[in-house]
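PROTEIN DESIGN WORKSHEET
SECTION A - STRUCTURE
LENGTH: 107
TOKENS:
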């Protein structure tokens, strides 16, 4: 399944019971990479954003592929360095990457 950024953004904007939610570039990149890696529709991923990455079916190799794809999408100069708690679920992954980019941990 090919998942494009446009599909992720349009799905995520109204993912929470029709409530408008704006996604940051990091969130778009993370959700697109996860949806591709897990081969799920962005709407399904948005509904399950609180589920653990392992429960979603993401193994360590899949996580590495997601992180590499996000690094490329965001054109980061160096690899991301994330704490373990950032690797719990899609929401914590977005927050961890945003924090790393903001503090230069991947920029």
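SECTION B - SEQUENCE
RESIDUE ASSIGNMENT:
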């Amino acid at each position: 399944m090919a998942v494009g950024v446009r599909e992720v953004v349009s799905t995520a904007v109204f993912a929470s019971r029709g409530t408008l939610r704006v996604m940051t570039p990091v969130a778009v990149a993370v959700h697109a990479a996860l949806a591709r890696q897990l081969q799920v529709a962005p709407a399904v991923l948005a509904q399950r954003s609180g589920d653990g990455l392992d429960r979603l079916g993401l193994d360590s190799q899949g996580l590495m592929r997601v992180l590499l794809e996000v690094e490329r999408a965001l054109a980061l100069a160096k690899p991301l360095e994330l704490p373990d708690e950032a690797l719990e679920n899609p929401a914590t992954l977005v927050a961890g990457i945003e924090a790393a980019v903001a503090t230069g941990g991947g920029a």
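SECTION C - NOTES
The chain has one domain: 5-102.
Confidence is low (pLDDT under 50) at residues 7-17.
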